[in-house]
Amino acid sequence: MAPMRSLLLVIPLLVHGIAFGQSRDIVRLARSTVSFVSEAPLEVIKASTDRSKGALDRDERSFAIQVPMVEMQGFNAPLQREHFNENYMVSAQWPYATFSGRIIEAVDLRVAGTHQVRAKGSLVIRGQAQERVIPCTIEVTASGVRVRATFEVPVADHGIRIPRVVQQKVAATVKVDIDLTFEPQG
């Protein structure tokens, strides 16, 4: 649970630009879509949310994103959503998935252009952190920074056990798509 607490402290620092008393070029998450697909032999499960929060420090190329699990919508049935939150994500105990880290490549996030980069950081799901390097497309415009990525998450990496009885309905690896737009506030 320590990674979650530390991220909850990092987001306000990034959002308010209070990093060691220095003024930072912080942009906040203005629009987001985070979705996942579980493609198993007998069933496809899809859900998404547009309720994520986060910030990007353009000076340091660092970021923190928080995705509320209970806000995932679009399941095939209400029972699927219930099982997702109660049995797999245990959303009452771990309400957020988080990703925080830094963009590896030395790109200037204030200069317009499109860049293929890698985001390296800690992906925390169900309180279990895994270091990840995720290839991303970053588009810098006058209005902000858009980040898009598609990557796979093996659910076992985060302590999610799929009971044998549903292994044909729930995939061991889910595909995640993100589309995040960060904009200056004010």
Main traits of this protein?
mainly beta; Lipocalin; 9 strands; 48% strand
How are the secondary structure elements laid out?
Blueprint: H1 2-16, E1 26-39, E2 44-49, E3 53-57, E4 62-68, H2 78-88, E5 96-103, E6 113-125, E7 128-141, E8 144-154, E9 173-183
Antiparallel strand pairs: 1-2, 1-3, 1-9, 3-4, 4-5, 5-6, 6-7, 7-8, 8-9
3D architecture notes:
The chain is mainly beta and 186 residues long. The chain has a single domain, classed as Lipid/polyisoprenoid-binding, YceI-like (Lipocalin, Beta Barrel). Helix content is 14%, strand content 48%. It has two helices and nine strands; from the N terminus they run αββββαβββββ. Strands 1-3-4-5-6-7-8-9 form an eight-stranded antiparallel beta barrel. The longest helix is centred in the N-terminal third of the chain and has 15 residues, at 2-16. The chain starts with a helix and ends with a strand. The model is unreliable at 1-7 and 12-21 (pLDDT under 50).
How many independent structural domains?
1
CATH architecture descriptor name: Beta Barrel
CATH topology: Lipocalin
Stretches where pLDDT is under 50 for at least 5 consecutive residues are 1-7, 12-21
Largest sheet: 8 strands, antiparallel, barrel
Radius of gyration: 17 Å
Strand arrangement within the widest β-sheet reads 1-3-4-5-6-7-8-9
- The count of DSSP E runs of length 2 or more, i.e. the number of strands, is 9
